[in-house]
């Protein structure tokens, strides 16, 4: 039987290298974290053959003293912790002191450094675990470390490395993660002598735009919430820009990139009813908390952490993200996008400022108070329906000014012909709307785009329907296309959630109960879960072993097909149970109810109904997406239309 023996230090380091240095990107991570801990503001990375031939990092940090250079390449030698108390509240990226020693045991390593305030620079070499004595060298302040021929001492391990392009891609991803966590540090990356990435120091918005794209920053949602000793801040992506993969998901805990199940579950739940099931959210978020509240020493590569109060972290993140996403309403244009051209402007730190909330009444009052407003020709026709929609907010005849009467015609009133007795209506169109363009005075077209946008709501006014599915509307910037079923579904869904949360679900009693045939499972569900049905606004009674009667249903769904709605609700309750329906699966049930209670395709709507739906969308949280994460509206600017028809070219 083999005898137990103490392994040599060199073999111990090689074993550790198998865990810490999984591939060239892992070695690069260790070097960059040391440079960042040293206070570097400018990092230069050079790679050859994807990092398998050479990894070189040049920084301008505080440097290492001559006497400490050989010690830096020994196992468990570090300047970042001293005792157990320091280990329990680690505030640096590195702390174990085994990264350089492990790398030196499986490569040829050269470490040069010049300590801050020192007149000379020194260098040590390590080959197969043997460290040389310090020698003088030429170097400005900071450190330079070179790793040659990674795994040349362990050919079996080198066989598991992928192609040069794959290994470089992993190295590039590692640089981007650390660059996002440190936007104030400049990063330069070159591969095989060619510059691949250059990130200038700046703020998070500029760094995220360089890595994740301008569209992510311009359309993203800014998050900055705090509670107690917790703070969550950063940029989370718009649900309409969901990704097909998880490549654009960056989460940092105290500046360290991590993947944590608690965090990922909170993010999935926050996006559940605004993101399509085939898409993944993009985000760049930072969680800050007391270092004693998180254990970073639970994984060899430190990519996983363990929270002391994981449930509190989960609730805080879920609440903060839902609050941020609730502010996304249909019609609002992010500050980073030019409303006239639709192009993305240069991102800055203030691109996520929320737009002021406006209600339909605000728009109506504003339009009627601005008696001297003359709409531009392109918005005059849809503005004609304004009077019809907001007739209840019109001024009394005695209050109308002369300018009011010159700008708007009265609401259409019926008139009868003496001969045919046919009913005719006077068109409710502004006086200048039917005049040729040449007949409109310059003063009538003088108002600027600013005055136009102040009077016209974000989603504009309805023009009509397209194939009974889409609403076409016109606003100050161009054309708006709305999926009326998806939009109404979101409006009803949010109303149901609010009513249920307040325990004020209004019900509509039915004068004549709807009786329908039901199987024994539905009958048993009604008998067992009558209280659950009552809580969500249903009163269903058992008429016979094969029949059920619907006596009341939620007021918000009074126009839905009662029988189809009841059957869908009973099926959901039977499948997941009453307790789950009113707890974790509550929103799924409400989504089913909203889907059955919303306006269906191929239903003809009046202009007034279309405008009412547009105003509801503007006042409803998360109305940019339906319950299933599909977009509810789309905007095409005049500039985009001009390009399509080559106007001005």
The mean pLDDT is 77
How many β strands by DSSP? 25
User: What is the structural class?
Assistant: alpha+beta
Cα shape: elongated
How many H/I helical runs? 24
- Contiguous low-pLDDT stretches (5 residues minimum) are 335-451
Spatial extent as radius of gyration: 33 Å
Strand content: 15-25%
Q: Portion of residues in helices?
A: 25-40%
Q: Outline the biggest β-sheet.
A: 9 strands, mixed
| N-C termini distance | 88 Å
Structural key phrases:
single chain, 649 residues, 9-stranded mixed sheet, 25 strands, endonuclease activity, DNA mismatch repair protein MutL, HATPase_C_sf, MutL_C_regsub
Describe the structure.
The protein has 649 residues and is of the alpha+beta class. It is 35% helix and 21% strand. It contains 24 helices and 25 strands. A hairpin with a 5-residue loop joins strand 1 and strand 2. Helix 2 (24-37) packs parallel to helix 7 and helix 7 runs antiparallel to helix 8. The longest helix is centred in the first third of the chain and has 18 residues, at 164-181. The protein starts with 8 loop residues before the first helix and ends in a 5-residue tail after the last helix. Mean pLDDT is 77; it is low at 335-451.
């Amino acid at each position: 039987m083999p005898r137990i023996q103490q392994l040599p230090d060199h073999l111990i380091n090689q074993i550790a290298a198998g865990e810490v240095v999984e591939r060239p990107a892992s070695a690069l991570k260790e070097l960059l974290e040391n440079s960042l801990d040293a206070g570097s503001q400018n990092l230069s990375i050079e790679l050859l053959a994807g990092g398998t031939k050479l990894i070189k990092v040049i920084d301008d940090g505080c440097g290492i003293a001559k006497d400490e250079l050989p010690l830096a390449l020994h196992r468990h030698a570090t300047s970042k912790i001293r005792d157990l108390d320091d280990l329990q509240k680690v505030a640096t990226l590195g702390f174990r002191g085994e990264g350089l020693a492990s790398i030196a045991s499986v490569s040829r390593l050269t470490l040069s450094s010049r300590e801050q305030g020192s007149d000379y620079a020194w260098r040590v070499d390590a080959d197969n675990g043997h460290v040389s004595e310090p020698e003088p060298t030429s170097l400005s302040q900071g450190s330079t470390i070179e790793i040659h021929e990674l795994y040349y001492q362990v050919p079996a391990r080198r066989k598991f490395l992928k192609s040069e392009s794959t290994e470089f891609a992993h190295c590039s991803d590692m640089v981007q993660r650390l660059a996002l966590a440190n936007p104030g540090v400049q990063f330069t990356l070159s591969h095989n002598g060619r510059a691949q990435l250059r990130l200038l120091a700046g703020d998070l918005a500029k760094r995220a735009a360089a890595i994740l794209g301008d569209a992510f920053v311009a359309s993203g949602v800014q998050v900055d919430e705090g509670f107690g000793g917790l703070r969550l801040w950063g940029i989370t992506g718009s649900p309409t820009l969901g990704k097909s993969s998880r490549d654009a998901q960056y989460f940092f805990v105290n500046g360290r990139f991590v993947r944590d199940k608690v965090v990922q579950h909170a993010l999935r739940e926050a996006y559940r009813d605004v993101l399509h099931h085939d898409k993944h959210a993009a985000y760049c978020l930072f969680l800050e908390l007391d270092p004693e509240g998180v254990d970073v020493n639970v994984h060899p590569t430190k990519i996983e952490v363990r929270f002391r109060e994981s449930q509190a972290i989960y609730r805080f993140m879920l609440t903060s993200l839902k609050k941020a996403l609730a502010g996304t309403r249909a019609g609002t244009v992010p500050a980073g996008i030019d409303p006239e051209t639709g192009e993305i402007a240069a991102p800055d730190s203030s691109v996520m400022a929320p737009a002021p909330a406006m209600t339909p009444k605000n728009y109506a009052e504003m339009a009627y108070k601005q008696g001297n407003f003359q709409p531009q020709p392109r918005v005059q026709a849809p503005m004609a329906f304004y009077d019809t929609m907001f007739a209840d907010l019109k001024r009394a005849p005695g209050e109308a000014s002369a300018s009011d009467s010159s700008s708007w015609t009265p609401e259409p009133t019926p008139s009868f012909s003496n001969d045919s007795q046919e009913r005719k209506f006077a068109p409710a169109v502004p006086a200048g709307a039917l005049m040729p363009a040449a007949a409109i005075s310059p003063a009538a077209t003088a108002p600027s785009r600013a005055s136009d946008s102040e009077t016209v709501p974000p989603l504009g006014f309805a023009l009509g329907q397209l194939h009974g599915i889409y609403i076409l509307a016109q606003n100050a910037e161009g054309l708006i296309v709305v999926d009326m079923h998806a939009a109404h579904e979101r409006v009803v869904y949010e109303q149901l959630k609010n009513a249920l949360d307040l325990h004020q679900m209004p019900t509509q009693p039915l004068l004549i109960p709807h009786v329908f045939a039901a199987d024994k499972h539905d009958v048993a569900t009604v008998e067992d879960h009558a209280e659950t049905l009552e809580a969500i606004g249903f009163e269903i009674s058992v008429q016979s072993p094969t029949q059920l009667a619907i006596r009341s249903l939620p007021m918000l769904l009074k126009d839905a097909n009662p029988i189809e709605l009841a059957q869908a609700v009973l099926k959901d309750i039977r499948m997941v149970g009453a307790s789950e329906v009113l707890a974790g699966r509550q929103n799924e049930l409400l989504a089913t109810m909203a889907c059955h209670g919303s306006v269906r395709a191929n239903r003809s709507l009046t202009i007034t109904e279309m405008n009412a739906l547009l105003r509801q969308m503007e006042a409803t949280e998360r109305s940019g997406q339906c319950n299933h994460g599909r977009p509810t509206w789309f905007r095409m600017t005049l500039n985009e239309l001009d390009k399509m028809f080559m106007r001005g070219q």
